[in-house]
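Journal club prep — side note

Before the paper discussion, L.F. wants everyone to see what a predicted structure for a comparable chain looks like in token form. Sequence:
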Amino acid sequence: MNLLCRILSAACALAIASTAQAQNYPDRPIKLIAPFPAGGLADVLARAVGDEMSKTLGQPIIVENRAGAGGNVGADAVAKAAPDGYTLLMTSAGILTANQFLYAQMPFNVETAFIPVSNVADMSMLVVVNPKVEAKSLKELVALAKAQPGKLNFGSPGIGTTGHLGLAMLMYAAKLEIGHVPYRGAAPAVTDLIAGQIDGVVDNPPTVIAHIQSGKLRPLAVAARQRMALLPDVPTAAEEGVANYEASSWFGIAAPAGTPPAVVARLHGAIAAAVRTPAMQERFSKSGARLIGDNPQEFAARVAAERKTWGEVIKAARITPQ
């Protein structure tokens, strides 16, 4: 047998083996790594969608928390796992799009280490202020910030967090100068905001929605193309004159690079079925989350586009890699 025949024979054998593996997949429990602490949104979402996916796949999905380095620790474990569909990542937007610009040393090449399977849930960020702030709208906030550069102070859960990046994008889109006060977590930032120690935050709905509903905080705009069903009276940033300001915190499922396409397709089908269930829809709509379940190609395109955007915003904001 000549060399060409041997190569073709090996390729055929590999294809047959891959097809057989996909047809039998899964035949044992699947590990879903949530790279943030237990009790957080990534963990809660991973367990909820994992439970629903297991009904379709016929195997349990075991959630394992591996926190650290903005999600990089857990993501690295998945990047180095066998690409067989039995170790998956509940990834945040930050891991796939922003961390490479925020960390001087990355343990993996984010552009080649993963296959995006499906975006599970998306939460558009809200621009929120203390009711004592003069601005009653985002348009008025922009005017106030431009009239008094650096006087307003916005808090965030910490340097490089989605709250910090959402604020940086607002300043980038509207050409503003607003002071940034980093906290250790969202809770202390919101506590100080309610007390009037800072003027505002840009954060996820679950962090601020109860305080908005109680009147303790004033929402000015949603950083999305469309209004939120949960807060229909809050305009989009574009409606308030700030074009191209779209910032969201999302979570999706990714697999190690090299995972067979048939396995990826099977996983996507299970995720899409999971997010369509009434129980999932009802549970997460109350927190302002929008369940998605898009296909791998759509998810990969979003990741690539946001990676470019965050790179530009982080550079413009002069956020130094840690």
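L.F.'s comment for the group: The longest strand covers residues 114-124. Keep this in mind when we get to the figures.
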